[in-house]
């Protein structure tokens, strides 16, 4: 595993001029942020040695290198989900490779169902914390030397980055909400009873991704900032049928606002 990570990182290093310190993972329907990036180089996942290949509609599967907010960044357009059949080693492989390439700050985004009754469809939720409800832990197995065997998780989402996002949202007049993201394995969306249970657990939003990458990034000492786009509501009395197309449509609409926040944060990060 370590050898594969190093081989993949080496392959990339041989092909890119600059190694950025910041990376972005673009979630479902959020690939349009890629259009905001001044892309200098791109690698389809299929061309990268040992990289899994993305299978879901709405994920084109490219690793991008370019500039956003005046800084060099890399971006994963399309991620690997547990529900697709990948194991957690595969799901988190790109994060390990990016760490090997020198990433020290990671921006993650996803589409999620809101279970907080104060949320609206189209809200941007700054992820303050998460609940890992996935059936396999990404750090299961021999410990990686990037971090301790029993990692502390009290600040998985960097408080300073959260505060920066709040400030930028306020300055730009963008409505943001905050909350706890709960990751389920999917691929089913939730039944009304399940949404209710997750709310009782303390979740504000429910989705099928992000948490594995965040855990691995945190174990590597990478600072993490995450945003969920609320694409549907799992709130009693307001639950309607959810489809992947609907999720993508709702995600599409708020992308420019999310891009605005990401771009400005990247500009301000040292
Ligand atoms: N549940 C789980 N995953 C999701 C949802 C949802 O309601 N919406 C977007 N991704």
What does this structure look like?
The protein is α/β, with parallel strands linked by helices. It has a single domain, classed as Nucleoside phosphorylase domain (Rossmann fold, 3-Layer(aba) Sandwich), CATH 3.40.50.1580. Helices cover 32% and strands 25% of the residues. It is built from seven helices and nine strands, in the order αβαβββαββαβαβαβα. The protein has helices at 2-13, 33-36, 88-100, 159-172, 192-201, 211-219, 244-268, and strands at residues 22-26, 38-44, 62-68, 71-77, 105-114, 124-132, 176-183, 205-207, 223-233. The protein has a five-stranded mixed β-barrel with strand order 5-8-7-6-9, surrounded by four helices. Helix 1 crosses helix 3 (88-100), helix 3 packs across helix 6 (211-219) and helix 4 crosses helix 7 (244-268). The protein is globular, with a radius of gyration of 17 Å. The model has no long low-confidence stretch (mean pLDDT 92). Hypoxanthine binds next to strand 5, strand 8 and strand 9.
């Amino acid at each position: 595993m370590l050898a594969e990570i190093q081989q993949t990182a080496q392959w990339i290093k041989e092909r890119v001029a600059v190694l950025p310190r910041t990376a972005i993972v673009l979630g479902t329907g959020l690939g349009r942020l890629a259009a905001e990036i001044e892309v200098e180089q791109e690698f389809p996942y299929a061309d990268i040695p040992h990289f899994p290949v993305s299978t879901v509609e709405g994920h084109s599967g490219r690793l991008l290198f370019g500039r956003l907010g005046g800084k060099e960044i890399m971006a994963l357009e399309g991620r690997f989900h547990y529900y697709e059949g990948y194991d957690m080693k595969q799901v988190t492989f790109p994060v390990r490779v990016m760490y090997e390439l020198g990433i020290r700050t990671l921006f993650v985004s996803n589409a999620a169902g809101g279970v907080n009754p104060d949320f609206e469809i189209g809200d941007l939720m700054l992820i303050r914390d998460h609940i890992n409800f996935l059936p396999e832990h990404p750090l299961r197995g021999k410990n990686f030397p990037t971090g301790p065997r029993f990692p502390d998780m009290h600040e998985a989402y960097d408080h300073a980055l959260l505060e920066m996002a709040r400030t930028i949202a306020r300055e730009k007049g963008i409505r943001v909400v905050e909350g706890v993201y709960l990751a389920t394995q999917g691929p089913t969306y939730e039944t009304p009873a399940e949404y209710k249970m997750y709310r009782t657990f303390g979740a504000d939003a429910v989705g099928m991704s992000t948490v594995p990458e965040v855990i691995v990034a945190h174990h590597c000492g990478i600072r993490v900032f995450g945003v969920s786009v609320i694409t549907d509501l799992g709130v009693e009395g307001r639950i309607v049928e959810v489809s992947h197309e609907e999720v993508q449509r709702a995600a599409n609409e708020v992308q420019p606002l999310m891009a605005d926040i990401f771009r400005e944060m990247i500009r301000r990060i040292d």
